[in-house]
Design goal:
three-stranded mixed β-sheet, elongated, Tetracycline Repressor, domain 2, CBS-domain, MgtE N-terminal fold, 24 helices, 3 domains, about 450 residues
Length: about 450
Amino acid sequence: MINTLFLPELREMLESGNSTELRDFCEALHPAATAEFMEGLTVDEAWRVLQEATRETRSEIFSFFDEARQIEILETQDREQVAQLIEDLAPDDRVDVLNEIEPQLSEQLIKLLPSDDRRETLRLQAYPEGTAGAVMTTEVIKLDESLTIRHALEQLQKQSNEVETIYYLYVVDELDHLRGVLSARDLISSLKSPEKTLRDLMETEPLTVDVHDDQEEVARKVAHYDLLAVPVVDDQHRFQGIITHDDIIDVVREEATEDAHRIAGVEPLDAGYLQTRISQLCWNRGVWLAPLFFAAMLTAKAMERFDERLSEPAWLWLFIPLVISAGGNSGNQSATLVITALTTGNVRISDWLTVVRRELLMGLLLGTLLAVVFLPTGWLVAPELNATNPMNLAVIPVTLLFVVCSGTIVGSILPLLFQRLGQDPALMSNPFVAGIVDILGILLYVMVAGWFLG
């Protein structure tokens, strides 16, 4: 609401060409707030405002625009000016935004970058998406292990404006092998011994990640060790860059969104919901609906096979939705819990037996609960279920117990199996679990009905 009220004043500045006020507007607020105030502007108007900011502020404001606006700016504005903006972005942010635009335009912009930035951008783009190398930044302070505290502080002063963060200082040898790490706080605290070398002060076995490590695994490490940044090394332990906490937040958000989509039976979207074309959205949903449709056909086939068994007594048909939903819902709950636990690292494949035992016990408890709830209420749906025929009363409660147990076991085992096969456990989405449990539910229903009704 606030940014909408401010729009007339901002547009008045643009119409009058008041460069001083526009520059003050860009510099006075936090870049995130400035970007928010500019949401109501057209892309051309937003670009005109950015031209009044300093290069550093311009790139910071741009980084807070939503992805769709960033892409539109890159695609519609002057190539030379856009290339200058891209140059001022942090290397990892630069690669991210270049990967989102058309490859031909990306190549054009990269060619306009200074040689060092162009070389660095191409190197980062070479890392597969979803790996540590693809999300790391290379703007980082590297210090020689032989430097004294005094000289290290001098280097820190020289490099501090050129890097993304100075939370940690990384110590390397002449071949860029990572030798150790220390915090800026450690360095300042050691000023009483200015001639001491970094070799004496640094932590010699810092936690590192490999450039090819999966970004999800990196996020888990950073969260587990409560780090602000983690160094990235190659196979020879040469220092390549760092992954900062803000990048980790983006990774966690991205992975959580992908898992949420897959659990719901939707192929993850590359862009936002509103930014995704209807045709692409249809494909991402249809590619999962098709196999789920055939799974439902198998359920129908199972019901057809046992048509005669389910037709007598007639009330058996009334409770098929109840049986199927109880199994599917319990399976979905188990699958969601296990997928989440695997994603956060709370459960490992080696814990499979414990997980299955817990879910079997949970199935027995929940199934018994539903059976007990059914006994005094089932007659409301089918008056034939009464105390004069105990066999009738037993069919649904016993089936519920079996179906819920099968749902919890299937829902817990399938994500673990996918993880063991090296696949994302979220691929075993809730609809797939429900489809499998539906077929099991029909089979169990018919089996129990045969036991009690002959």
